[in-house]
Amino acid sequence: MSQPFAKLPAWADYGLLPLINLIVAFLVAGLVVLLVGESPIDAAVLMVKGAFGSGDGVGYTLYYATNFIFTGLCVAVAFHCGLFNIGGEGQAYIGGLGVSLVGLWLGNFLPWWLTFPLAILASALVGALWALIPAWLQAKRGSHVVITTIMFNFIAASIMVYLLVGVLKPAGSQAPETRVFAEGGQLPGLGWLLNLVGLSMRSAPLNVSFLLALVAAFLVWVLIWRTKLGYEIRTMGFSPKAARYAGISELRIIIITMMISGALAGMMALNPIMGAQHRMQLDFVAGAGFVGIAVALMGRSHPAGIVLAAILFGMLYQGGAEIAFDMPNISRDMIVIIQGLVILFAGALEHMFRPSLQRIFYRLGRAKNRTAAAAIAGGNQ
Amino acid sequence: MAEPAIELVGIDKRFGAVHANRDIHMRVEKGTIHGIIGENGAGKSTLMSILYGFYQADSGEIRINGQATRIADPNAAIALGIGMVHQHFMLVEKFTVLENVMLGVEGAPLLKNGISKARAELKRLEREYQLDVDPDALIEELPVGLQQRVEILKALYRGAEILVLDEPTGVLTPPEADHLFRILEQLKSQGKTIVLITHKLREIMAVTDNVSVMRQGAVVATRKTEETTVEELAELMVGRRVLLRVQKGEAKPGDIKLSVENLTVRDSRGVVMVDDASFTVRAGEIVGIAGVAGNGQSQLIETIAGIRAAVSGRVLLDGQIIDITGAADPGELRDRGLAHVPEDRHHMGLVLAFEEYENSILGYHDDPLYLNGPFLDLEAIKADARKKIEKYDIRPGDPRLKTANFSGGNQQKIVLAREMERDPGVLIIGQPTRGVDVGAIEFIHKRIIEMRDAGKAVLLVSVELDEIRSLSDRILVMFAGRIVGERDSDADEGELGLLMAGVEHKEAAE
């Protein structure tokens, strides 16, 4: 009785429903485009072409997606523990310190394949430590992580401004950024990967951290569903009382989970810093930490879903930039509106179409039963 | 014959795949008490929710006093003179009795006139039906029995001629329940019609005139109460013969396994929940703790199980002290042979969102048996879960099914299988059969007795006095956090009821 509607089959739950949400989001976005006097169809063509129509388009789309995979995983891991870590932005920003220190120092005399693992460790460590303080406050003092992590975003931003303007900036430079890393601090691009599918990438910054993001997604899946720690995290996330009953230490799990979450956010810094700009610039995260929340919501906190959602948002970023460039009436802010609509329908209004879809599936199921019953009755005559 | 107060004709209701009510026909005569009895999930509550306008029937007709009606929402039901007393009270704790009674029928934007009118009307109702409650008392300061009376007054205040009570005695002591039944008799003599929903056979026999038995969404029989027996009703409810009495041999108590000394526990607000409790449980005996819900039993067993912190006192397991400062690790206690079936299986004993096999290791997930280094050994866990499913007849027997999709009885079996199969020395069980159907109750009781006969020390907490009496070898009664008495298993029910209501002092003085 607690289930008033038929359960949806898995393919409808994870495939059809997000697809419907996405279509509605694009329809409404199309209306917005219409409103400012441009053709929605042209805009759509432009977006898809811009995102996937060329080697560079794909390169940029996947480059953005790399950022969102990391931040999406960061949010998802915390979600599984019932924690809402919205500090991915700050954890990634601070994580840039780890990457930069390795890039600036070891980049001078080590090859990239040695600096890369060290930079991974450094960025993860710094991100994890930045998440540790809110985690500790939550576990020990009950200070809500939503409040503390968002506050830590501001603290991180201020610290980074201070460091980039005063400490890390080379003498004589006017730009708030570090010097360019030596060759050992630069990650190789993935042009060869696109060549395999017949595309050529010239200027897009897609680099090996994309592969790292895919590995991270797989490892998160293993962690959550295949390890004892993941079992404990999920128990805590679903029912803290059951976790207490089962002898799972709340303190330990909250701290470990938040540190993993922060580490994933911190690793995002590798992509723009070592992979693309080869230096750390002011505000290099550029909101990816917050997009990660939408990505995790849309991907249902499942790594596979997160990778797909991250690519979708990568497309919106890259294709959106193309639209803003080519359509005079559509400014950069309009693109943000369209992205907002996707987040609204895919994330926040996720359950809007669920009841009607369930009703349809229920009716279908009943009709099928009836015809089956009629067939049996007919056979008996 | 006069028109019946309620006549249900062919009521049918489905929720998805669940056929909650099947073609229900029922007549409730005016001025009678009509019982509806059935197991959990038999469709009683759905039927009453349709009558009260929470749900709409898929087909069928409701006739009130002979008039076919459509009850679109609870307001329509109230307008037709139907009042409902819910199992969980719908009262605002911080409001007075008067404020609660007039809530929603204030009459005007300004309360002044409404209050004096309501006060006069409430006085009249109290006089007429002998329902004494102080109209200015705060709800949170009233005992549950009186809170229930306020619920009844609320219904009467809205002009109810038909009163539906959903499991009204679940929260009452036996004396309070008896008092409620006297009130119902009084209401009946004033011409009101009463529908009493319950799963307790004794109550049906005690107060009703007619009784309808529901099973799997259908009314399987309607009887005049004086022409039926408890045994017949039980059989109709379950669909087969049921042993109502638990069969068990003499207990052979052995060494002391669990010993509680001067245990005092406060809740987070600092209120004393367990007050200086001392007792022991020996191997091979079942010690039952009787008491009305909320008298400290929950806190007591949670403290012993290492989940809650105590203020003072000692707990010894096999003569070894247990850490009761709140820092105890329930996992370590499990290793020492203490198993715990918690009262709240939905939030504590199980993770409802987990698949069945995941719950079959909750609390024992540290066992190397289920692990491959840091990884879960899913094959081993599932094989283990399948064994337990077979042994405890858990249905459906699918370890991959989400736990929330099991019935209450089967969920409880998942917990019992997990805790009992570990062969613990001490087993603490809270509310073993709450929300569990009659068939599974029989099975669970048998298992508990088997544990005792295998030489385990069993500490049993239940608010069902019948359960405590039929299972326990010794009975402790808890009231306001204190253990106010110890009795043998054949103790008189009335005496236990008085102890549960906290009137032991008079006796002691005699």
User: Any low-confidence stretches of chain B, pLDDT <50, length ≥5?
Assistant: 506-510
What fraction, in percent, of the residue positions of chain A are helical? over 70%
Q: Give the overall average pLDDT of chain B.
A: 88
End-to-end Cα distance of chain B, whole Å, is 54 Å
Please give the order of strands in the largest beta sheet of chain B. Answer: 6-7-8-3-9-10
Mean pLDDT of chain A: 90
Number of strands of chain B: 22
Question: How far apart lie the N and C ends of chain A?
Answer: 36 Å
Q: Which regions of chain A contain 5 or more consecutive residues with pLDDT less than 50?
A: 1-5
Give the class of chain A from helix and strand content and strand pairing.
Answer: mainly alpha
Q: What is the overall shape of chain B?
A: globular
CATH architectural label of the largest domain in chain B? 3-Layer(aba) Sandwich
**CATH homologous superfamily label of the largest domain in chain B:** P-loop containing nucleotide triphosphate hydrolases
Gyration radius of chain A, rounded: 23 Å
User: For the largest interface in this structure, which chains are involved and how many residues does each contribute?
Assistant: A-B, 30 and 39 residues
User: Based on CA inertia axes, which overall geometry of chain A fits?
Assistant: globular
CATH topology of the largest domain in chain B: Rossmann fold
Please, how many helices of chain A?
A: 16
Could you say which structural class the secondary elements and strand pairing of chain B correspond to? alpha/beta
Helical proportion of chain B, percent range: 25-40%
The major beta sheet of chain A can be summarized as:
none
